[in-house]
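pasting for ref
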Amino acid sequence: MTVDYADYTGLLFERPQPGVLLITINRPDKLNAADEELHDEFGRVWLDVGRDPETRVAVITGAGRAFSAGGDIEMERRALGDFDKVAETMRQASAIVYNMVNCDKPIVSAINGVAVGAGLAMALLADISIIAEDVRFTDGHTRIGVVAGDHSVMLWPLLCGMAKAKYYLLTADFLDGREAERIGLVSKAVPAERLIEEAMAVAGKLAAGPQPAIRWTKKALNNWLRQAGPLFDASLALEMLTFLGPDIAEGLDAVIERRAPDFPSARPDA
C-alpha cells in the first residue's frame, strides 16, 4: 500500500531517485522551528517511512537557511506551568527518538543550517549525519534553563565520549560542522555547496544495497541506543520538570530580548 503524505503540513516530500524519500522541514520563516503540529509530525513521519513500500532510504533536511531551530518559542511558552501540555510535549519528544531508533530503514540527515532541540535530535539520530562545514549549532537546552533531554544524554556520550558530551551539554557552547566531525558527533562534514549532493549519493548507495543486510545491521547497532533508553527517559522527564520551574521563563525572555539571562536559580539570594 502506498503511503499518502498529504496530511503533513510542515514537511515536504519528494522522490528524487528510486527508493529515496527526501523530507524537507518547511517552516523557513521560523527557521523551521516546530509548533505543536509540526512537533507531532517530527515523530509520526518515521512510522510512515517505515511502512512505505516505495521508500528504502529517507533523507531529511531543512528549507532555507536552517535545519530546524527546535521547538517554537511560543509553543514552549504555552507549555509553561501547564501539566497537560508538558505531558503532551514529552510524548511527542519521546516519539521522535524512539520512532527514529526503531524505523527499520536507514535515515540520512543533510544538516544545512542551525539545528537545536528537536531539530538537533533528528539531525544526530539519523543513521548517517552529514553537515555543512560552516554550520554552527548547540544543543541549547541549558541556555534557556531546561535539562538537555531531547536525545543528547542518550546519544552524545556514545558519539563523542563523556568528556566532550558533558562540556557541550552543560555549557551549551556552539560548535561548527568541522569540529562536530572531528569529535565524532556527525558522520561527515562537507562544503555547503556539496551537502545535498553528498547526502543523495549516500542515500542512493544505501537504496541500491542489500536491504535486509542494511536494515538488520541498523537494527543491531541501535541496540546500543535501546540500552540507553532509561537514560533518555530520565533526562526527558527531568527536562519536562524544568518546564514547571522559574528558570525557563527567564531563559525564553532572554532569547526573545537578545540578552544574557538572569536565571532565578543563579541569583545570590537563591
